[in-house]
Amino acid sequence: IDSEATLRRVIDHPELGHAAYGLGYDETLPWLLRDCHLTVTEGIAIMMGALARDPEWLRDVAGFELEDSRGLLTAHAADALVFTRWVLVMTHFERELYADPEADLDTIWWGLVSRFQGLTPPESRKAPDWAAKIHIACAPVYYHTYLYGHLIAAQLRAAIHRQVGGLVGRPEAGAFLRERVFAPGASVRWDHLLEQATGEPLAASFYAAEIAAAYD
User: What's this model's pTM, rounded to 2 decimal places?
Assistant: First the structure.
């Protein structure tokens, strides 16, 4: 990345997704329905953020000449696999935390880290390491929303590719998102909104297919 301005564009992609969503509500909706579902807005944010590793976006928008775009795809897939396991730690830990706040949370935390991430707990460690994750205190019961976002982003990408050929440089892709995803706001339940937009219920198969394709 050869300039601070380009770096800023890349970093801000996820938040740009949230902002674009907020600008796309149908203004004729009642005010309380001009809002977004957390799972879907995270999906849009994740979709936008992923453009920073999209070879087509990097070439046509950011102006980079890429010698090996394959590495970007495999890195993205590896991150997805690692992140999925991390979300499982967070989700299961919060379930245990709210079920019994007086339980041995330190041991529970490392047990989940070992189970889902395959990491060996440090010997004789007795400390609230789980408390270092800010979401537990400041954005509780939210982390699973990011994994839903990844599933939704993959499903939307697949639908857009089927219908208009891709995201980058295609005004039709913007129209798809504006009309089918942003405009309804909160007037439709999130899972129904996704099904209306893509033609099928939420499925993990699109996320899995993107990961698998990176290693083919």
Answer: 0.89
